Amino acid sequence: MGKFYVTTPIYYPNDVPHIGHAYTTVAGDVLTRWRRMWGDDVFFLTGLDEHGQKIFRTAQEQGVEPQQFVDAMAPRFTSVWELLGIRNDDFIRTSDERHRAAVQAFLQAVYDAGDIELGTYEGLYCVNCEAYYTEDELHGGDCPIHERPVERVQEENYFFKLSRYEQRLLDHYQAHPEAVRPEIRLNEVLGFIKQGLADFSMSRTSIDWGVPLPWDGKHVTYVWFDALFNYCSAIGYGADDERFRHYWPVDYHLIGKDILRFHAVYWPAMLMAAGLDPPQCVYAHGFLMVGGKKMSKTGLTQIHPADLVEEFGVDGFRYHFLRDLQFGPDGDFSYESMVARYNADLANNFGNLANRVLAMSANYLGGVTPEGREDALSGPAHDAFERLCSGLERLDFAGGFGAVWDLIGATNAYIEDRQPWELNKAGEAAKVADVLGDCLEALRLVALLAAPLIPGAASELWRRLGLPGTPEDQRLPSAAEWGQLPGGLALERGTPLFPRIDT
Ligand code: MSP
Asked: Between the chain's N and C termini, which has fewer beta carbons within 10 Å?
């Protein structure tokens, strides 16, 4: 099987993670858990973007050294990812020595290629974005994203010769339109490139918190130039060439739409300058909105994952964000709809089906899996797998997992139709066993296919079905073939997998 390399943005540790950060990270986790089940050689990366003025100033405000500040913040991120069951293969921090060394090797390569030159910069800068704006991009003189004043800066800087890459970028996207998704984001990127690309300043002399340029130690690297390279430094650029060449180019950079330009214009050009391949796909999702607005600290609308996990559990949290919201457009977070979907999909559909089938199996089959089946659900089961595969291929998590919930619905409908309790009353023991054989096999498939999304409940259901190991130890596609639940396994009824939430 192939390699599969997926990244999240590296987050600014100036504040603790909120559900917007968790959204991308859970998406990456679901996708990579899925691909591990196919036997792929997966590498899933997340981490922290620790340099730059924003972090420097926050540390100053708190009266500590920047390194001390980021060291204290890093565990606040890793502990949230652990809480959410994120299985990242590495956690890169841009203050890591390995990252600094790799960035310097990369800078030298770009400098030697002649794509970095000295110049003077004068412009408007938003420290929160760590980005420059032109006058006409501002909203009433403020940063269009943060709605806060920008600063006028003038510095002698090194510039990356982005202007040289206009045509190469256009050619690249013409040949690989799939390299930016969804399509509306590609159009946005093409529109931006066609307006003409200006060289951008890639060093700073105003602070010394950053990676020094190898050829001019008075300058540190501009935070974005340094940050983007995390995707390469983490997989061994400059240190372990074989490993680097194995994983690069990345399969998916998962990002929010606000950082599209950096990932789909600057970054591929930077890579081209060093003779490296651009990313295979930059996938930009929308914002999680609260009350119709992007979540923000200043608007007091930040929601922290731990608060929701306390109420909905880890699986309930993961389920909501990937199933209830489309992974592309903006989506409104609402507590009420989270409760409603939890109760409808997890407590009722999923939980009740498991409970019902296991209870009937205890009553009618002595709690042991039967040998036979009717095979009436094999069609819906096959469909669910196909649709899940094609959904996840397009990063349509809501549609893909929707197919698994359709299988749950079909199984519930089948029970209503066949009425095993009536068959039991009529003394049709063989028929009861066959009907429940279908239901139990459907439950096996539900546990298998839902495992990347709700790993806790899925493996508990797997265990209650008497199956060894966990659903995620199974190999796809063979494990998804209908009819593999052996007879004679001891079932366990257990307590509700998703207790109802009453408000
Ligand atoms: N450090 C940079 C990324 C560097 S990647 C080489 C950065 N960090 S960030 O912490 O500000 O944002 C990280 C990601 O979180 C971005 O993709 C951003 O879109 C996402 N989100 C921040 N708020 C969000 C929502 N309210 N909803 C969804 N995602 C949001 O940018």
From this structure: C
Q: What local confidence, expressed as pLDDT, does residue 155 receive?
A: 80
Average pLDDT over residues 210-216: 97
Which sequence spans correspond to the domains of the chain? 335-480
Give residues with Cβ within 8 angstroms of 331, minimum separation 6: 286, 287, 288, 289, 324, 325
Structure tokens at 460: 């508990």
What pLDDT score was predicted for residue 1?
A: 63
Strand partners, 90: 45
Query: In this predicted model, what pLDDT tens digit does every residue of 406-429 receive, in sequence order?
Result: 999 999 999 999 999 999 999 999
Q: Which CATH number fits domain 335-480: 1.10.730.10, 3.30.2130.10, 3.40.50.970, 1.10.150.390?
A: 1.10.730.10
* 3-state secondary structure labels for all residues of 407-469: HHHHHHHHHHHHCHHHHHHCCCHHHHHHHHHHHHHHHHHHHHHHCCCCHHHHHHHHHHCCCCC
Gyration radius from the chain CA atoms: 26
pLDDT in tens, 474-491: 999 999 999 999 999 999
Helices vs. strands in the chain: H and E counts, helices first: 19, 16
Buried b vs exposed e over 99-114: b needs ≥16 C-beta within 10 Å?
Answer: bbebbbbbbbbbbeee
Q: What is the pLDDT of residue 12?
A: 97
Residue from 6, 7, 8, 12 whose mutation best tests the ligand 1 pocket (most atoms within 8 A of CB): 12
Q: What is the pLDDT of residues 159-172, one digit of tens each?
A: 999 999 999 999 99
SS3 336: helix
What pLDDT shows up at residue 293? Answer: 83
Note the pTM of the prediction, 2 decimals.
Answer: 0.95
**What CA dihedral angle connects 76, 82, 88 and 90, to 10 degrees?**
50
Ligand 1: distance of its center to the CA of 156 in Å? 29
| Interval between CA 360 and ligand 1 midpoint (Å) | 48
Exposed (0-12), middle (13-18) or buried (19+): which is 123, by Cβ within 10 Å? middle
Q: What gap in Å lies between CA 490 and CA 316, rounded to an integer?
A: 28
CB atoms within 10 A of CB 311: 14
Protein residues with CB under 6 Å of any ligand 1 atom: 9-12, 20-21, 23-24, 49, 227-228, 230, 255-256, 258-259, 287-288, 294-295
Q: pLDDT tens across 260-294, in order? A: 999 999 999 999 999 999 999 999 999 999 888 88
